[in-house]
Amino acid sequence: MKAPLLSVALAALILATAAPSSAFAAQEQAETATRVDEVVVTARRAGAPMWTVRRDGEGVMILVGAIEEAPRGFEWRAQALEEAAARSDRILFPQRGRASPADVLRLMWRIRTIGWLPEGTTTADYLTPEDQARLEALMADEKTDQWRRYSLLMLAIDLFKDKAGEKDARPVGADDAVRRAARKARVPIRSVGVVRGADLVESLISAPPQTHRECLRAALSAAELGPEAVRLRAEAWRGLRVAEVLASPVDQAVDRCWPWGDPQIGPQLRTEWTDAIAQALTQPGLTMAVAPLRRLAEPGGVLDALEAQGFEVDGPEWRASSPAAHEGG
């Protein structure tokens, strides 16, 4: 896979005679501010959850909260986001994996370790009686009971595909739309980090079965909701109902399953996003970042951290309303 695409080297050249006058500098700042505001307005027409982050004397950032999949035929206004991306100064994208042929071979060699539970065990050895009963009910129409020996991660993947509507889903494509527009407009783009294939494979091979227990529990909830699960999440995303997206069992499963749910890989991915956004906000002009919605809006996530640091965060409400708030209203 590709390495980060942005590598910038700046050479300082100070010419006193070429320094702009204060009047020209003020005009330039005003023009930049106007352009940024125009880009923000354009981006919001896309109908995807996004926030503008700014603080006096620092750069401006548009944070686009993305989800992965939606039902076939799901529509949103990608053109508006493409237009905004083309006028940004730089764009950040999610992490990329970097796998070697040796990593792929190792994964294939150890596929049984990843796909099956240890010899002599079944799902009942790792799940609570209540969760095992839920699983039994969902798998009641299976022709064989071979599924009892599947790893909890593979079971979760199967439940998503066969029961929760993922089989007929398609990528939403927010990051693809932005990437196309950026390349066409020659806007610098980079991923916020790179995850080594060796680390990804090792995390799958070495994780004990119980590591994936919470992943399967979330998948059970999504499967119990049925084929509507993916659609309901996508419609909440398009409707800017951020807390509803995060409450979706589909979204919770994405968070709890590999790689985000991995105890080693997950924290690394979160830290890379936080660090990349903090660094980008020190740069002049406008940065756009297409990030997983949950990483932005989860409790203690990027938006909460930015607001706590004194940044102005403008966009849809991302926190779930508390019962106390309803009672007080």
In short:
By secondary structure, this protein is α/β, with parallel strands linked by helices.
Mind sketching the topology for me?
Elements: H1 22-44, E1 50-54, E2 60-66, E3 69-71, H2 78-86, E4 90-93, E5 96-98, H3 101-109, H4 111-115, H5 129-138, H6 152-163, E6 169-171, H7 174-185, E7 189-191, E8 194-196, H8 197-206, H9 213-225, H10 228-238, H11 242-247, H12 249-256, H13 265-280, E9 286-292, H14 293-297, H15 302-308, E10 312-314, H16 323-328
Parallel strand pairs: 2-9, 4-7, 4-9, 5-8
Antiparallel strand pairs: 1-2, 1-10, 3-6
Helix pairs in contact: 1-2, 2-7, 3-8, 5-9, 6-9, 9-12
Structure report:
It is built from 16 helices and 10 strands. With 329 residues, the chain is an alpha/beta fold. Mean pLDDT is 84; it is low at 1-30 and 323-329. 35% of the residues are buried. The strands form 3 sheets. Strands 7-4-9-2-1-10 form a 6-stranded mixed β-sheet, sandwiched between helices. A two-stranded antiparallel sheet has the order 3-6. A two-stranded parallel ribbon has the order 5-8. Helices cover 49% and strands 12% of the residues. Helix 1 runs antiparallel to helix 2 (78-86) and helix 3 (101-109) packs parallel to helix 8.
What share of the residues lie within helices? 40-55%
Number of helices: 16
Strand content: 5-15%
Order of SSEs: HEEEHEEHHHHEHEEHHHHHHEHHEH
User: How many beta-strand segments?
Assistant: 10
The strand order across the widest sheet is 7-4-9-2-1-10
Structural class: alpha/beta
Gyration radius, to the nearest Å? Answer: 23 Å
Arithmetic mean of pLDDT? 84
State the end-to-end CA separation.
52 Å
- Largest sheet composition: 6 strands, mixed
Low-confidence stretches: 1-30, 323-329
Shape: globular
